[in-house]
């Protein structure tokens, strides 16, 4: 257990209090022996560790980046989304914290049990709708009077965004999210019991000149089967396994490349003659090349200059001996 280090002034003050009788040494010992009591609210049961909350935050930071790119392409305007907070609260508290009339998308995330909620602030939802209909992204809050066409357009946009959620969670579990319900009144939405612990991920969202929040509500029952995968230990194991897989792939690739057949050529020299001279060439004519006899020759590997060599013979066959290696960009 970590010990608290006192400053010199604090030590002097403590000794002074003990000597003057303001503080009793026996009382200090008794307080130290007494058990420390911490208040625990059973209505706000903390069922996720800080480590697991950090993992959920990391997943949704990736989701926010993917969602930014997706909405920017779909709406053709400036979009910025970032994680504002990740908290665990009772479901009842989450319902009370969102507007009385808002945009609620309920998704199933097979093979995980239960459903999750994506709540889009009306300012954000209507800015998206206005952009889709050719507007400048103005936000007009009329959630209570959504037409069937507006509901369909919003549902289609939010359904297309599911690929980003699937990709973000792919590092932990393969999910198949499906949009099941589109609701505007949270009071009619009883996803889990009021005291059930849920993780609420809040995303700061800016679309054009409009800004608001996107809240993701994930009940404990959804995350329960994969809670062990949300620990740092799991991520480290996965990273080590990934490194081992990469090492094995590298070895396999190396063995395959070692069997590849290469075409080697040695260029004795070059020269230029006219077509007339070529037509009048006869036996024992001599053609002068551009390379001296004492100069090294160039060995090409698949028509790429790689080595400087000198010609010779080995076991009555023509051969070359490598004398130097050409650096990339070197000319023969």
Automatic annotation (TrEMBL):
<keyword id="KW-1003">Cell membrane</keyword>
<dbReference type="InterPro" id="IPR001689">
    <property type="entry name" value="Flag_FliM"/>
</dbReference>
<dbReference type="GO" id="GO:0003774">
    <property type="term" value="F:cytoskeletal motor activity"/>
</dbReference>
<keyword id="KW-0966">Cell projection</keyword>
<keyword id="KW-0282">Flagellum</keyword>
<keyword id="KW-0472">Membrane</keyword>
<keyword id="KW-0975">Bacterial flagellum</keyword>
<keyword id="KW-0283">Flagellar rotation</keyword>
<keyword id="KW-0969">Cilium</keyword>
<comment type="similarity">
    <text>Belongs to the FliM family.</text>
</comment>
<keyword id="KW-0145">Chemotaxis</keyword>
<dbReference type="GO" id="GO:0050918">
    <property type="term" value="P:positive chemotaxis"/>
</dbReference>
<dbReference type="InterPro" id="IPR028976">
    <property type="entry name" value="CheC-like_sf"/>
</dbReference>
<feature type="coiled-coil region">
    <location>
        <begin position="236"/>
        <end position="263"/>
    </location>
</feature>
<dbReference type="Pfam" id="PF02154">
    <property type="entry name" value="FliM"/>
</dbReference>
<dbReference type="GO" id="GO:0071978">
    <property type="term" value="P:bacterial-type flagellum-dependent swarming motility"/>
</dbReference>
<protein>
    <recommendedName>
        <fullName>Flagellar motor switch protein FliM</fullName>
    </recommendedName>
</protein>
<dbReference type="InterPro" id="IPR001543">
    <property type="entry name" value="FliN-like_C"/>
</dbReference>
<keyword id="KW-0175">Coiled coil</keyword>
<dbReference type="InterPro" id="IPR036429">
    <property type="entry name" value="SpoA-like_sf"/>
</dbReference>
<dbReference type="Pfam" id="PF01052">
    <property type="entry name" value="FliMN_C"/>
</dbReference>
<dbReference type="GO" id="GO:0005886">
    <property type="term" value="C:plasma membrane"/>
</dbReference>
<dbReference type="GO" id="GO:0009425">
    <property type="term" value="C:bacterial-type flagellum basal body"/>
</dbReference>
<feature type="domain" description="Flagellar motor switch protein FliN-like C-terminal">
    <location>
        <begin position="257"/>
        <end position="325"/>
    </location>
</feature>
């Amino acid at each position: 257990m970590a010990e608290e280090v006192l400053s010199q002034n604090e030590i002097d003050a403590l000794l002074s209090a003990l000597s003057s009788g303001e503080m009793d040494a026996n009382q200090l010992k008794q307080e130290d022996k007494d058990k420390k009591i911490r208040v625990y609210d059973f209505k706000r049961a903390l069922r996720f560790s800080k480590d697991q909350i950090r993992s959920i935050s990391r997943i949704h930071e990736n989701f926010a980046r993917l969602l930014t790119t997706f909405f920017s392409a779909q709406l053709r305007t400036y979009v910025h989304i970032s994680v504002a907070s990740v908290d665990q609260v009772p479901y009842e508290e989450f319902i009370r914290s969102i507007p009385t009339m808002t945009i609620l998308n309920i998704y199933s995330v097979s093979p995980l049990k239960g459903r999750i909620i994506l709540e889009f602030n009306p300012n954000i939802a209507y800015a998206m709708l206005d952009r889709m209909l050719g507007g400048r992204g103005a936000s007009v809050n009329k959630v209570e009077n959504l037409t069937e066409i507006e509901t369909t357009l919003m549902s289609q946009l939010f359904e297309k965004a599911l690929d980003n959620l699937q990709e973000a969670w792919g590092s932990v579990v393969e999910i198949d999210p499906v949009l099941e319900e589109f609701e505007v009144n949270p009071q009619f939405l009883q996803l889990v019991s009021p005291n059930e612990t849920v993780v609420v991920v809040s995303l700061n969202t800016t679309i054009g000149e409009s800004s608001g929040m996107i809240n993701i509500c994930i009940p404990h029952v959804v995350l329960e089967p994969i809670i062990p995968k949300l620990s740092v230990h799991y991520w480290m194991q996965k990273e080590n396994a990934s490194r081992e897989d990469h090492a094995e792939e590298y070895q396999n690739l190396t063995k395959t490349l070692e069997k590849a057949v290469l075409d080697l050529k040695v260029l004795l020299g070059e020269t230029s003659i006219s077509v007339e001279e070529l037509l009048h060439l006869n036996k024992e004519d001599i053609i002068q090349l551009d390379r001296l006899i004492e100069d090294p020759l160039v060995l090409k590997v698949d028509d790429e200059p790689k080595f400087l060599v000198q010609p010779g013979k080995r076991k009555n066959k023509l051969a070359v001996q490598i004398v130097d290696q050409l650096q990339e960009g070197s000319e023969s």
